[in-house]
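Researcher: I've been going back and forth with a colleague about how Membrane dipeptidase might be arranged in three dimensions. Neither of us has a model we trust, so I'd like an independent prediction. The organism is Bittarella massiliensis, in case that matters for your notes. Sequence below.
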Amino acid sequence: MDLFDLHCDTLTSCCNKGLSLAENELEISLQKGSYLERWAQCFAVFVPDELRGEAAYDYYRRAVDYYRAQAAPPLLREGAEMAALRRGERRLCPILTVEGGAVLAGRLERIQTLAEDGVQMLTITWNGENELGWGISENRGLKPLGREAVREMERWGILPDVSHLSQWGFYDLAAVAEGPIVASHSNAKALCNHPRNLTDEQFAVIRDRGGLVGLNYNQGFLREDGPATPDDIAEHALHFLALGGEKTLALGSDFDGAEMPQQLPDIAALPALADAMARRGIGPQQIQAIFFDNAADFFERRLSSF
Ligand SMILES: [Zn+2]
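Model: Here is an independent structure prediction for Membrane dipeptidase. You can compare it with whatever you and your colleague have in mind.
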């Protein structure tokens, strides 16, 4: 089985708890994923809303240093590495991402530093307001510095990630960004009316720009009532597929940062998700596209062009 996961909070958890990435009791460890034949894993540095200014940047720095001190393969930098993964010449591609534009501490020159660290994606905000934008529950979008940041990110090859942005933030970002947009871990609002999910119209914007949407396994983003199951994730997949998302859909687990369905306790349980998709009539080739091919194609193409 292959996996390309656009979002997890495992690195931050490991760093905060002093745990090893290779082996731990979290939802993702390199050991738990060792059954995967080809595995690309985005490791987000999640910057909590309590941290602003240089404290946010220092927190990020500590997490990146923590990763580098682990017995883990180096972070993805070049398209050739993704190509090698796709050919099966390497098994694991760890990818560094950041959740929360507060990491910049309001200084756009930090975008270059992040790019040099290998950061591939950055969400402009988490849930609260920061130097770049307003919070998810406010009917305001990006601040002027946020618009500038999006341009600068594109210049340095860092993808703008719209997960956690409000609708206002989303459309502000879409108006500024010239390249593809990614929602690394968001579901369909039509099926679960949560501010973290995407409207059909937002999904169409991402699809038309050749971006990606990673399905989130968090129960609260899957259904409004009662416990969620892998079948609910399959339902969100079917909804996006019906909107022409064959090449847009990917996975964005949110492992180690959310409340997982009982049947999906950790990365080792992912075959249950593929089974649920198959049961709901999604074909094997499309499942493979969601699980790996769409995101792998996207990142190989993208990294090769920089
Ligand atoms: Zn998140």
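Researcher: What would you highlight for our discussion?
Model: I'd start with this: The longest helix spans residues 284-304. After that, consider the following. The CA atoms of residues 4 and 255 lie 13 Å apart.
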